[in-house]
Amino acid sequence: MVTAGGSGMGAGAARNLAEKGFRVAILSSSGKGEALAKELGGIGVTGSNQSNEDLKRLVDTVHEEWGRVDVLVNSAGHGPRAPILEITDEDWYRGMEVYFLSAVRPTRLVAPIMAENGGGAIINISTFAAFEPSEVFPTSAVFRAGLASFTKLFADQWAAKNVRMNNVLPGFIDSLPEKEAFREKIPLGRYGHVEEVAETIAFLASDGAAYITGQNIRIDGGITRSV
After folding, report:
1. Nearest CA-CA partner of 201 in 8, 3, 7, 17
2. Which of the 8 DSSP states describes residue 97?
3. Helices 89-96 and 138-158, axial angle in degrees (round to 10)
4. Model pTM score
5. Furthest-apart CA pair in the chain: how many Å?
């Protein structure tokens, strides 16, 4: 299952997983995910990852059709941006919906199914700014730092059931128009490719990553450093 998978990194992950033999189900509010799922021979639902009802409809359809959920990829759209003290209460709540609860809600639905079937992998598409906040992405940085804490707490409690959760932390990726000012900050000297993020997600979904949980994997060309 890929949420917010109609375009960008979510769509890239869906395509890559399908190429590797997964049956793919996609949720997207635009309808693009439903079209992509049809192209990939999977299940598509038009709806929002901010709606418990839409997410349940996707999960129920997948469970009825395929009897299991092995992988969940939580993607997201874009939340509010503004100078830090100009962000309204409403925009902070919107940011929480877009960047945090959009991962919590589907996890709540699929983790018990995964545990019942012997395990599974949940991968959240987060941001490099979760640990080194950027003023360019304030609501993303704040709530995805919270997502990192949620991921660790989840991993601690669900590892015994062989349900893993990890975050990928992309930097500047070519799913968005390139800006010279951003590219100059990247030690590798270029934007990352959607396909590179997709390959990392596919690895975390694979048996090769069966001993990895609760981690934050940076895909940012060296723009941030682990301490």
Report:
1. 17
2. I
3. 40
4. 0.96
5. 49
